[in-house]
Design brief:
This protein folds into two domains: 12-280, Aldolase class I (TIM Barrel, Alpha-Beta Barrel), CATH 3.20.20; 282-341, no CATH class. The two termini are 28 Å apart. The model has no long low-confidence stretch (mean pLDDT 95). β7, α7 (181-195) and β8 form a beta-alpha-beta unit. The strands form two sheets. Strands 1-4-5-6-7-8-9-10 form an eight-stranded mixed sheet. The protein has a two-stranded antiparallel sheet with strand order 2-3. It is globular. It has 13 helices and ten strands. By secondary structure, the protein is of the alpha/beta class.
Length: 341
């Protein structure tokens, strides 16, 4: 059964899901911050091959009652609707315990579908879509070559909501750099407020060296934010989230303050209090926590109370400073983030 084809990634929340690959790579594959699919030629897998993989998966897992299935790779919604319906029917036949079937979806792929198509897909089982909107700023969307506009984000999001599809929107803190940090927070909040997705999934941006933005960081064209500056951006973003009832999810290990999560609007004040607690720490403690998170000593802010861990992180920082008198901890933390994804 080793000939079942699988893709490279899935969302963190799909860790226990059945994985079925329907496309290879990303049909856009031009974003300046992403290098995942740059060496992969995009293709839609033949429907018969996908159906065969579903059958083989049912035999392999032999009655395991999966409740969720994620369709790989970057955008299964790019597949023609009639083919997706065949795939969904096969999944429900072979895995009758499935309650959710999910996929990444670009906004332009959603816009190519009619609302009746989206409704049909939802009724057939594709009931949860993950959108990487990244930002609500048209300036930043252009800068990162995302290939969509803020209007596309809003219109496609509302199409999904009208079709009854659960919507998870990924946003990138720090994707605008220091210069556009405030704009990223405020404009992203605007599109989120307009759509009211079921889940807001925030990520700290990690600029990898094999991407256009990563190279711009090395050249000094793109100015990294410090961990504290990204947290301040997050605070401004949350402050500007209004009149929505989304879950704010802070689940990815790349994020600094994993405690900042909850249901809006009821948990908004608590999330801001956690951020303010971090921002109110001494400069040494903020650096200690940021570095400690990035090198794996800490998971939550409370882990700093472990004296042995705290001392070990302080020693690591001091050793780095001794070896490199001009150590750039913004770059150190970005390097660590980049190695987490």
């Amino acid at each position: 059964m080793t000939d079942i084809e699988l893709g490279p990634i899935r969302p963190p929340s799909e860790a226990q899901s059945l994985l079925i690959r329907v496309t290879r790579g990303c049909h856009w594959n031009k974003c300046f911050f992403c290098g995942l699919y740059k060496d992969m030629k995009y293709s839609v897998r033949p429907t018969d091959d996908i159906l065969e993989d579903i059958k083989k998966s049912a035999e392999l897992y032999n009655g395991i009652p999966f409740t969720s299935c994620f369709l790989q790779d970057a955008d299964a919604l790019h597949v023609p609707t009639e083919d997706l319906l065949l795939i969904l029917d096969k999944l429900k036949t072979c895995f009758p315990s499935l309650k959710t079937i999910t996929s990444y979806a670009r906004c332009d792929s959603i816009l190519r579908k009619s609302e009746s198509e989206l409704t049909a897909l939802r009724e057939a089982g594709l009931n949860h879509l993950y959108r990487g909107i990244e930002t609500g700023s048209d300036t930043i969307l252009k800068n990162i070559y995302k290939g969509i506009t803020s209007k596309d984000i809003i219109v496609s999001g509302l199409m999904c909501k009208n079709a009854g599809i659960i919507l998870s929107d990924f946003t990138l803190l720090g994707i605008g750099g220091r210069e556009l940090s405030e704009e990223n927070a405020i404009e992203t909040a605007k599109v989120i407020n307009a759509v009211n997705p079921d889940y807001i999934r925030v990520h700290h941006t990690a600029f990898k060296p094999d991407t256009k933005l990563g190279r711009d960081v090395e050249k000094g064209i793109f100015i990294l934010q410090s961990e504290e500056e990204i947290v301040r951006e997050q605070r401004l973003f949350i402050e500007n989230l209004n009149d929505i009832n989304s879950f704010y999810i802070n689940e990815h290990i790349v994020n600094l303050l994993l405690e900042v999560r909850g249901k809006l609007p009821s948990d908004k004040d608590n999330m801001l209090e956690i951020i303010d607690h971090y921002l109110g720490m001494s400069e040494d403690d903020k650096l200690n926590f940021a570095v400690g998170r990035r090198i794996g000593y800490y998971y939550l802010l409370s882990d700093m109370h472990d004296k042995s861990k705290n001392t070990a992180v302080s020693q690591y920082i001091n050793n780095l400073k001794a070896k490199h008198s001009n150590a750039d901890f913004d770059k150190v933390c970005n390097f660590c983030r980049a190695n987490m994804i």
